[in-house]
Write a structure and sequence with these properties.
about 475 residues, 2 domains, seven-stranded antiparallel beta sheet, 21 strands, START-like_dom_sf
Length: about 475
Amino acid sequence: MASTTRFEQRSPMPVSAAELFAWHMRPKAFVRLTPPWQDVRLEVDPGPMRVGAEPIISVPIVGPFRKRWHARITEIDEGAGFVDEQVSGPFGSWRHAHRFEADSSVGGTEDRCALVDRVDYRLPFYPFGQVAAGPIRRDLERLFAHRHRRTLSDLRRHLDDGPRDAEGRPRSLRVAITGASGLVGTQLEAFLFTGGHEVRRLVRREPAPGSNEFCWDPAAGTVDPAALEGVDAVVHLAGSTVNQRWDAAGKASILNSRVQGTTTIAEAIAAMDTPPAVLVSASGTGYYGHRDAIVGEDAPQGEGFLAEVAGAWEASTAAASEAGVRVVRARLAVVLTPAGGALEQMLGVFRMGLGGPLGGGQQGFSWVSLDDAIGGMYRAISDDQIRGAINLAGPEMVTQREFAKTLGSVLGRPAFFPVPAGLLRAALGEMSAALLEGVRATPDTLTRVGYRFEAPTLRDCLRQGLGLA
């Protein structure tokens, strides 16, 4: 039998060991730590962290094949760390000690500590499994580099942009979210939970017993009154996907889902005796239509279907504004993450070296990293200076051609195979406008309030998301 191998990653963190321990113990920490480039699925959620809890995940092995990984929490050292061990799974054995330590090398004090991940593992199928020793080591380096970067960035975001009381001390919020199961909502919910905030999910099905879910029905215009009672903020993300055929039925679904949902939320807030302080309602940079100019939040509404949808979407917040609630209309650029959306769909083609610009490639391409989409919304929740429209977009302006070239460069692949505009129009019809038209939206408001971008350049965004930073 082969001996075990040790892997260790150590990073300084800007909080105490007790605070770092609390971050890891809170609900949804697993969601924040899961690498976005890997399709890891939590099959059994054992609930609160405790000795004896047994989470089960499935991980990709090769192609469509997956392997279940059954783990057990075997030790919890209050305020200092915990240990999980493999019961069954892809390794011969696995013991992962998560330690949160005061350390003079990182200035360990009351408000600073070291995050230490120490893994002792043995490869399966000895001696044949040894051929994978190098790649597995590199995968662990990539995984834990991501986990430490994500932990550090989240902790800094809460310290820099979190809400404060009258004495300037951090305070927790109660936040209601629609669309919490979507690409952005899933991560926003996890970010808020791990930061010590309370989250309420508004769902259109029967709420799960004992959960943080509450029912709402945008088609009927109703919201469970208990859902919004006592909340500090509402984040409204729900809406039908635009990634569908733009025939009459599809366009009606895209438009009506946004108008009905936003009107329902805004009117429910307006009817409250004590409404939340802020409504952050999603919109899109499609509001500006297709134009060559760089546009800030003060630019007028453009033309085209997406501009029409965004305009109606934003106008539907009127009831909340008229009730005196601070309303933020968050115009999202294309959110780039390999976990879903546009980037996930493009990666296969680009990895084969067959990627390239769409149409002429000169159209603007507004983008934002998933972490900055979340971070921008969090700043909008916390900062009373922010109201009205804000562009949730990366600060680097690029064209579609520049995007394709950068993605190819990050992947180490050529990216000079253009997709002709005529082919896109023939295949997608009117929906092709979403790809062939574009805008370069600048995040003027976030820049003005001093927001610190996790991914200030497109290359940063792609490298971080793909685990290549």
